[in-house]
Amino acid sequence: IWGGYTGDGFKTVLPAKAHAKISFRLVSRQDPLKLRAAFRAYVQAQLPPDCTASFESHGTAPASTMSMADPAFEAARRALGEEWGMPAAFIGCGGSIPIAGYFKTVLGMDAMLIGFGKDSDQIHSPNEKYDLECFHKGVRSWARILARITG
Length: 151
Known about the structure:
The chain is mainly alpha-helical. The chain folds into two domains: 2-46, no CATH class; 71-150, Orthogonal Bundle (DNA polymerase, domain 1). Helix content is 38%, strand content 3%. It has helices spanning 32-46, 71-84, 98-107, 132-150; strands at residues 2-3, 18-19. The relative contact order is 0.12.
């Protein structure tokens, strides 16, 4: 979100324009175009009579989900448990990564999204980190998963 004077120092005037860049993380069965239209209608409905809003689109992508009943899901869960020495946790996130939805809508196949980070990694934050142990175990995990679902 930004508006008004953004250079060094300060200005004590009210800005004539304001801007915002907004993205949404979708969940299963949400239609990105329908969500976009609903958001724009909401913003328009909140405007005072002497204000206007304009919008630019930067793309949309559907969210994806993979059924837990899919045999590949359970095979992956077992392979992960073998590598990490504890049962894998299903947390249901990452489905709004655009390529995952395209695999489903364009190729007709599910995308298995598996993360190997720790909660303390602060993914996508300014102080993001990633342990080498997670990297190495992640590589070995994918080798185990691929062996299970192809063999």
